[in-house]
Design brief:
With 472 residues, the chain is of the alpha/beta class. It has two domains: 2-234, Spore Coat Polysaccharide Biosynthesis Protein SpsA, Chain A; 263-452, UDP N-Acetylglucosamine Acyltransferase, domain 1 (3 Solenoid). It binds uridine-diphosphate-N-acetylglucosamine (UD1) and calcium ion (CA). The site of uridine-diphosphate-N-acetylglucosamine has 28 residues, from strand 1, helix 4 and strand 10.
């Protein structure tokens, strides 16, 4: 669709208005940097703009301009993103005026808002097609309660005559339920002279972008209203309540999309995806799980209640029991097929677990490989280690991987048994098939097959009299 739109009607340039203050958020963070599904509101909009192959995306910044520009430049390093400052903010028409110098006449300009995050690419493509290189196309929607919005004033059933802002509207006009969504597509060569003619003679003494509709009618340019029936796509965020409501609505949509693919969810209303989640067949997800970054779940994977899983690949048939925290960050985490993880386990960046590995409660794994069948079932830390197949790693045992200045590796051969409460002082190697007695502090490498006990010998005194408290 994008290609068709481009071929037929020339390049698309997008202007994102993001200079407003967002007073009702009552926050020091600029409104458009507040997060929906883990990403800044304005990042969703930039993403969608790039999704329709925009030639250029101009973000108009004002309040918190430096912060907004820095965040976007970092998030979209290689994108055709440009910024136009609007100081002070004198209205939506004034906002687009600031971007004008960056817009070439051969394109169609699509105007979006940084605080309307869920506008869809297909909707924009349809709007560009409706504009067709020669018309002003407005995205409109019917609201039961249109209070506050610009009303679409029509000439009978004919074309659109004007947009009248709520504050400027007559009582009759306020009855109109079709409102302007804030999104338009307009041929840039037509837009520019209209912008030059804007004034601020209205109830709010602002330069209204919406006044170009009247100019189009005067100039004999057709104005078309493209109605959407999806209120989420045009929903703006003005306060924390609206942000939370939009978050829930968005999350429900993501949950529904996954369920259509066959994912079974205990409760789609208690599911959060802040990134991407790829699922193979027969995945089950219990309540209150949060997925972040890029996560993929193999066939038959089960995720227990209250897990947070980020940047990880979970292989077929693995079970993640409740309250497990997995975050691969940049290095990633992999959990092998049929592994059992948790409850209350923590997998950190670089944890690579093989098939049928068992990780139990209060066990932390970081930057370590565990080969097939290795088990650490209780209260343990394994960091910067290579753990062989079928190793049994006892409760309370840790790798002392950090000497205060540098990290060192621990190597544990296949079939090793590490007793409880051991400290493996890295760098150290435990030879394959070896056994380390409980309570050992091992700082020298051991031979394969041997028993290592590194603790003080037990001394027992028979009939020992315990001290008694003196009387005062
Ligand atoms: C605007 C429309 C109204 C429409 C409504 C939909 C105008 C005059 N009115 O009204 O018809 O129904 O959106 O939500 O366009 N912004 C700037 N600089 C400014 C002013 C605004 O960047 O000087 C940004 C805001 O941060 C916001 C967007 O533009 O992201 C829309 O501004 P807002 O003040 O919310 O417009 P409305 O009065 O709601
Ligand atoms: Ca608004």
């Amino acid at each position: 669709m994008a290609q068709i739109a481009q071929q037929d009607f020339g390049p698309v340039d997008v202007v994102i208005m993001a200079a407003g203050k967002g007073t009702r958020m009552k926050s020091s963070l600029p409104k458009v940097l507040h997060r929906l599904a883990g990403r800044a509101l304005v990042s969703h909009v930039v993403d969608t703009a790039l999704g329709i192959q925009a030639r250029k995306v101009v973000v108009v910044t004002g309040h918190g301009a430096h912060e907004v520009e820095t965040a976007l430049a970092a998030a979209f390093a290689d994108a055709p993103l440009e910024f136009a400052r609007q100081v002070p903010q004198l209205g939506t028409g004034h906002a687009v005026q600031q971007a004008e110098a960056l817009l070439d006449n051969d394109g169609t300009t699509v105007v979006l808002s940084g605080d309307v995050p869920l506008i869809g690419a297909q909707t924009l493509q349809a709007l560009v097609a409706a504009s067709a290189g020669r018309r002003l196309a407005l995205l409109t929607i019917d609201f039961d309660d249109p209070t506050g919005y610009g009303r679409i004033v029509r000439d009978g059933d004919e074309g659109v005559q004007a947009i009248v802002e709520h504050k400027d509207a007559t009582p009759e006009q306020r009855q109109i339920r079709e409102v302007y969504s804030g999104v338009m597509a307009v041929p840039t060569r037509l837009l520019k002279p209209w912008l030059a003619r804007l004034d601020n003679k209205n109830a709010q003494a602002e330069f209204y972008l919406t006044d170009i509709v009247r100019m189009a009618t005067v100039d004999g340019v057709a104005v078309v209203a493209h109605r959407t029936d999806d209120p989420l796509q045009v929903a703006g965020v003005n306060d924390p309540l609206q942000l939370a409501q939009l978050e829930r609505a968005y999350q429900l949509r993501q949950a529904q999309a996954l369920m259509v693919q066959g994912v079974r969810m205990a409760d789609p209303a208690r599911f959060d995806l802040r990134g991407t989640l790829a699922c193979e067949a027969d995945v089950e997800i219990d309540v209150n799980c949060v997925f972040e970054g890029a996560v993929s779940l193999g066939a038959g994977v089960r995720i227990g209640a209250n897990c947070v899983i980020a940047n990880a690949r979970i292989e077929n048939g693995a079970v993640i029991h409740p309250f497990t925290h997995i975050d691969g960050e940049k290095a990633g985490v992999t959990v092998g097929p049929a592994a059992l993880i948790g409850p209350f386990a923590r997998l950190r960046p670089g944890a690579r677990l093989g098939a049928e590995v068992h990780i139990g409660n209060f066990v932390e794994i970081k930057n370590s490989t565990l080969a097939a069948g290795a088990k650490a079932n209780h209260l343990a830390y394994i960091g910067d280690a290579s753990v062989g197949a079928r190793v049994n790693y006892g409760a309370g045992s840790i790798t002392a991987n950090y000497d205060g200045a540098n990290k060192h590796r621990t190597v544990i051969g296949d079939d090793v048994h590490i007793g409880s409460n051991c400290v493996l002082v890295a760098p150290v190697t435990i030879g394959a098939g070896g056994t380390v007695g409980g309570g050992s502090t091992v700082s020298k490498s051991t031979e394969p097959g041997g028993l290592t006990v590194a603790r003080a010998r037990q001394v027992s005194y028979p009939n020992w009299l315990r001290p008694v408290k003196k009387k005062a």
